Amino acid sequence: MNVACYNFSMPLIILFGPTGAGKTYIGKLLEKEFGYYFYDGDTDLTTEMKQALNSMKVITDQMRQKFISRLINSTDRLCHNHDKLVVAQTFIKERYRVKLLKKLPQAKFVLVKTKTDLRYQRRQTRADYPWDEAYVKKMDSLFEAPRIPYQTITNDSNGTNNLKADLRRLLSALSPRSCKLNVVIPR
Length: 187
Fold this sequence. Notes:
The chain has about 190 residues and is α/β, with parallel strands linked by helices.
């Protein structure tokens, strides 16, 4: 029997990508199935940003700067309290991704992708900020293509078991290759 060796010791994963891609869903799956502590970056949204998002108004760079500073400080603090941490946040601008990496160089970014029409459907049904398609398209237009190093995972509703298998492969790609205290998965 062939076996694959997976070392799941990656301590800090940042799930980023366009709104509605499923970052929170994947973060919660990493928490439940792989022992990560999940942190939803929206927790650090300022009151001003929450109000703008609720009314589908423009988010200014000044609002984002304040928010990103709060998020990076929270992530830094959480890294000291948790061996394995996953943070989900859009990180719409490249400069904010770079800012996080300067403070937390151990972070591994993972771009969460999904079909555009599926993202629009998800956003309309979300309880926290149910945006219409026009607002999601506006947010999409602001999302800067990443230039930092990153991995990609696709979340197109192919089933939880398929997504867990994809996460195992992703964690293996992010982790040092070692069989010491690893999970061994038959192929």
